[in-house]
Write a structure and sequence with these properties.
By secondary structure, this protein is an alpha/beta fold. The chain has helices spanning 6-18, 38-51, 68-71, 79-84, 89-97, 160-170, 177-199, and strands at residues 2-3, 26-31, 56-60, 107-108, 113-114, 119-120, 126-127, 133-138, 152-157, 207-210, 218-221. The strands form three sheets. The chain has a seven-stranded mixed β-sheet with strand order 1-11-10-9-2-8-3, with helices on one face. Strands 4-7 form a two-stranded antiparallel ribbon. Helix 1 (6-18) crosses helix 2 (38-51) and helix 6 (160-170) packs antiparallel against helix 7. The relative contact order is 0.22.
Amino acid sequence: MRHGTRNEMLARLAEAVESVTHAHPVRVAVDGPPAAGKTTLADELAVLLREHGRDVIRATIDDFLFPRTQRYPRGEYSAEGCYYDAHDYGALNRVLLDPLGPGGDRRFQPAVYGSTADAVLSPPIRTAPADAVLVFDGVFLMRPELRDRWDLRVFVSSAPEKTVDRAVVRERQVSSRTDVERRWRERYLPSQQLYFDKVRPTDHADVVVHNDEPQQPVWESRTRGGHQ
């Protein structure tokens, strides 16, 4: 375990990215529960990598959701529905992760869904430089459908009650405390427990960031083999 400032932790993560040398873009997963702080961490890492001169593709699992009419067959508060029905992993691999991986042509799309309009998207195809970095945040990124697509795997951990409190603050303009707590306690937290029971995501992570205190994080690096 390492303790330090947030800047020290981000510098270590940037070093870990720089240490991955492939003939294709480096695909970085930033996994973790809702409101653990993974999106903020991924944004900050992307800024730092750009300062180091890297071409960064910033994308998120929220842009690979199925439309609302498809993703709630088990009900809006179903934990199983959150885990099994919400995300289009086939499209994520097809338009983003595989093109940027070994043997890919580096022609990619960063999204297939727009949450504001709840509509399928088809953004212009872009071509990534061979030395680009994809920084991708989201839930359930160590699932078997995705696990082997990542070149560096980061898991952002936070105590469940902290994620509930953060969510209440984050969503107070659009949802009541009662609504937020119900979503977390009935859907999001149980779906994370299901994920941990089935996948044990921290076992597959290269770096685990304990983010209970974001300005004083604790992190641990793990040596793993088998990267493509």
